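User: I've been going back and forth on whether these two constructs are worth ordering. Before I decide, could you fold them both?

Assistant: Sure. I'll take them in the order you sent them. The first construct and its structure tokens:
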Amino acid sequence: MLIMETNCSPMELSNNTEFEEDSDYRDFEGTDVKDMRLEAEAVVNDVLFAVSNMFVSKTLPCAEDVAYINVETRERNRYCLELTEAGLRVVAYDFDQADDRLQTPYHETVYSLLDSLSPAYREVFGNALLQRLEALKKDSQS
């Protein structure tokens, strides 16, 4: 067990507002910095219903500026995707791998990337969208 000694009491820390107002320190509180692992989890949760399998890689390193997502399409094709501020791109044709020699284009959204890789994704996603629109139409008519 690691024990840290400090020269101030917890009350002194909670009353110190100087750090909270300084924008340089606000980043460390998570209000301005994007955590790519969280972004990757959101991507997975958004489209998991339309693919066979999708999860954030636990093997490849995630950082503040990059995360890796493994996806298996309904056609049973496997990909490893890189998520950065530039977007998403395929970095390997299997889980938990990144091939530096592979030069694939970035996509701004996961929808665009999966649309280019998987006709079955396109169909499932399109059907889900139609069902949502039909539900909205029914709600607006009642």
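The second construct, handled the same way:
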Amino acid sequence: MLAFITVGSTRFDGLIKSVFSPSVLASLSNKGYTTIVVQCGNSDFSYNHLLAQGEQSFRLEKDGVTIECWKFKPSLQTDYERADLVISHAGSGTIVDVLRMDKPLIVVPNPTLADNHQQELASALEKLGHLRSSTTSQLANTIQEFDASSLTKFPPFDGGKFRKLLDEEMGFV
């Protein structure tokens, strides 16, 4: 099975360092994940020297898991589609993209961003049952306890709701 980890367009050193830790790799391996693909952005971590040498990506074996790592791509769509599990920062665009694809999602809000807005979104969607939220220090535990079958399916997009809201605000109905 394959797990995809993404930090989006930002830097999230804590998440990437956590993903490369023996405890997180062991949790992923124990759950059957043999490959992880990591989109690390500009994060600073113990293996980023492999990217600093002009390489676009690297592969390595660590703690029984094959790891592929790269900084950025024009689109993450293919990576989402291949993934059996997505572990991500809690950016709204990433969350909606992954949930609309009906992929199991664990989010780790980045507390270094303005107003800790990612935590608010993660908490609200976790309360609705659409995803699980974690911290970098609890990620191994969250993965170990994660049961994708307990998640509530995210509702499909309905453009009519926005149109109705706009019509009501404009006084057309």
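Notes on the second construct follow. The chain is about 40% helix and 20% strand. The longest helix spans residues 159-170.
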